[in-house]
């Protein structure tokens, strides 16, 4: 997001060419519809391509406590996300959003992703107002009430939290060169962006991170599920695309999935998973098959060694009760010793 301190004339230039190049590199046919429509809407609003639409100045759509809370201009909670200060502001936001949108929309489905975008937009800007109002209350600086911001980056930070939440622990690179643990990448990026671009809205970006955390670790997702009857709580598979961490090998085979907008069907093992998750499932399946084959082979070999397969039934050893104490020791025959070695080997395979 970008704080507004005055009007600014905008013209298309090299930044939009770079954005079009990145979209072409990803493949327009590979960009899901909601992500593509969001990209197109932001670019069209910047270039003023909609005829008959009154394009307000940035000061008329930016989010601030004064304009929204005191003056009641609530439409700014939505409008502010689709206006940018300049084309480089637009480029960085849309380039980042494109890759997150491709990943999340494929996992959630278009309808669910559109719902998440709408809720995140309103929640991010609402939380921004709350933070600025709190800062004014505690520090008695009225500048927080007048601070006005536009842009899509607050929503992008919320999506970043959602994206990294479902990835396995590991390292990632901020700005392509700074390695940091993936779980704290959004916090590091928050600081780095503020250092490199002091005009960036720190409160707007922070609001996005907090909204993302409220969704992944707080009550926001449960609240968002209320209009749907809380049906996501009764599924083995996370309706927002990623497998739940609590899944076991047994429950994963009977999970449901929300993929490409389809719900309520029985998914095959590995359906709707990422490549890493599919590889993990395949490895576990291969290990199960190996254990089954090895166990069957060991049992068959043990049976053959005891002579059962050849029709010879060795007599059962005498039974002793617990009161009688342990059975008297007797020298084992070669056949009995071999059988004991086979049983020991079978027990080791099961450990």
User: What is the string of SSEs from the N terminus onward?
Assistant: EHHHHHHHEHEEHHHHHH
Query: Helicity level, as a percent range?
Result: 40-55%
Biggest β-sheet: strands ordered side by side in the sheet: 1-2
Low-confidence stretches: 5-9, 231-276, 308-332
Compute the gyration radius: what is it? 30 Å
Class based on secondary structure composition and strand pairing: mainly alpha
Terminal CA distance reads: 56 Å
What is the mean predicted local confidence, pLDDT? 75
The count of DSSP E runs of length 2 or more, i.e. the number of strands, is: 4
Strand residue percentage: under 5%
Our count of helices gives: 14
The major pleated sheet works out as: 2 strands, antiparallel
Instruction: State the shape.
Output: elongated
Commentary on this structure:
It is a single chain. The chain has helices at 14-26, 33-47, 65-70, 76-79, 87-108, 110-139, 143-146, 153-165, 185-196, 202-216, 220-225, 249-252, 275-306, 334-350; strands at 2-3, 149-150, 171-174, 178-181. It has 14 helices and four strands. It starts with a strand and ends with a helix. The chain is mainly alpha-helical and 351 residues long. The strands form two sheets. The chain has a two-stranded antiparallel ribbon. Strands 3-4 form a two-stranded antiparallel ribbon.
């Amino acid at each position: 997001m970008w704080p507004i301190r005055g009007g600014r004339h905008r013209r298309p230039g090299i930044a939009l060419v770079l954005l079009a190049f990145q979209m072409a590199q990803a493949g327009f046919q590979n960009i899901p519809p909601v992500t593509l429509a969001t990209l197109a809407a932001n670019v069209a609003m910047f270039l003023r391509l909609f005829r008959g639409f009154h394009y307000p100045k940035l000061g008329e759509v930016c989010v601030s406590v004064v304009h929204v809370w005191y003056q009641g201009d609530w439409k700014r909670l939505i409008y502010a996300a689709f206006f940018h200060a300049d084309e480089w502001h637009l480029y960085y936001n849309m380039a980042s959003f494109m890759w997150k949108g491709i990943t999340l929309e494929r996992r959630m489905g278009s309808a669910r992703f559109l719902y998440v975008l709408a809720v995140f937009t309103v929640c991010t800007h609402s939380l921004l107002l709350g933070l600025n109002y709190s800062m004014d209350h505690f520090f008695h600086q009225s500048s927080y009430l007048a601070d006005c911001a536009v842009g899509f980056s607050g929503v992008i930070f919320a999506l970043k939290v959602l994206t990294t939440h479902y990835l396995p622990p590991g390292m990632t690179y901020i700005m392509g060169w700074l390695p940091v643990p993936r779980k704290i990448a959004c916090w590091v990026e928050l600081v780095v962006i503020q250092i490199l671009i002091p005009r960036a809205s720190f409160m707007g970006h922070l609001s996005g991170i907090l909204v993302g955390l409220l969704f992944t670790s707080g009550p926001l997702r449960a609240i968002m599920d209320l209009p749907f009857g809380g049906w996501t709580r009764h599924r083995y598979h996370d309706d927002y695309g990623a497998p739940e961490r609590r899944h076991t090998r047994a429950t994963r085979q009977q999970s449901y999935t929300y993929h490409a907008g389809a719900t309520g069907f029985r998914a095959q093992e590995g359906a709707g998973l990422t490549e890493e998750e599919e590889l993990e499932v395949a490895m576990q399946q291969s290990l199960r098959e190996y254990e089954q084959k090895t166990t069957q082979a060991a049992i068959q070999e043990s049976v053959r060694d005891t002579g059962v397969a050849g029709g010879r039934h060795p007599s059962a050893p005498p039974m002793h009760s617990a009161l009688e104490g342990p059975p008297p020791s007797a020298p084992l025959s070669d056949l009995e010793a071999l059988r004991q070695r086979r049983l020991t080997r079978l027990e080791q395979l099961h450990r």
